[in-house]
Amino acid sequence: MAGERFYATIGVGVEQLVSAELEALGIPVARIEPGRARFEGGLDAAYKALIHLRCASRVVRELYFCEVAREEDIYDVVYAIDWSRWLTPEMTIKVTFNVHTSLLRSPRFGMYRIKDAVCDRMVELVGNRPSVNTEEADLYINCYLENRRFSVGLDGAGAPLHMRGYRVAQHESPLREHLAAAMVLQSRWEPGAPLHDPFCGSATILTEAALIATKTPPSHWRQRFACMSWADFDDAMFASLRAEAEAAVLPADGLRISGADVSGKWLEAARANVAAAGFADIIRLQERDVAGMQLEPGSWVVTNPPYGVRVGDEAKYAPAWQAFKDRLMEHPGTSVAVLGAAETVEKGIRLKPFKRNRMNNGSIPCVLAQYRIGER
Question: pTM of whole model > 0.90?
Fold first, then answer.
């Protein structure tokens, strides 16, 4: 599918999931790079990715890619682009610059030089410069420099894609929506089977599971995409693709999704989020310690237990992990996917996982370990 170049930004451990998502949309993946899944096509491909991808953070339209030899080349490359095609002086810009190289003395200085190049070029072309808005801009310019490979692109999302719009109440240690979706997809949960999260917090895993089961697009609540400010944005095409995605949503009848948490405070947040997502009558929530966990036969447990990196000392949660394992062992046939710091998961479960994937929870390196209880 020849055409323009795009890439979806992705986290550690979700490369194959995002590849499968793109392929399911009829978008062949050109290649996977660290942090990116590249594809080519027309604007419809970018629009589909923005509407449907559950496990990616952004979809970027690449304007230019080259190798640079010196720090000064960054300004020259950006300046050479005809920014008047994308901008007017009345518009605002936001620049994101991801750097993995020793070529730059200061990544922040490099970001300023990119901004300068865009503005200086606009002054040359149209006699005036756009303003910078770091909160909500009209045009989001996304650049990266890895070793000497430099890319300049336009972010089609704006606010990251994990910001679905249904989470009205926050947990003190929130699990991002696209990571929760990746956990559910990686677990290979079958929507006809029961799914339970005994440490549900604000119910992100449960909500993402319901979205997956009903084929509700993750963009369902989003009103604004950065691509809507692109000069060649096709409003009719985008609206048609969104309508097509909404028309494919399935009823939630028969889903058996449940969660529990020891904290009444977090259960209140979970109920608010589940209701905002439209699943208040589908997802069953209960205030309960993990020691009281009971599971239906053939259940999936997908969970992110507390592991002491963000919200307390690891030893504080050791009894919860022990109770969690004890209850699991009472339910042979259960499929389990647990996200946590690798050492904590190994100490807490003390079973050999049949599958182990590296994933990052924000800046925390983690592992998603999967087990089938009762299997040797």
Answer: yes
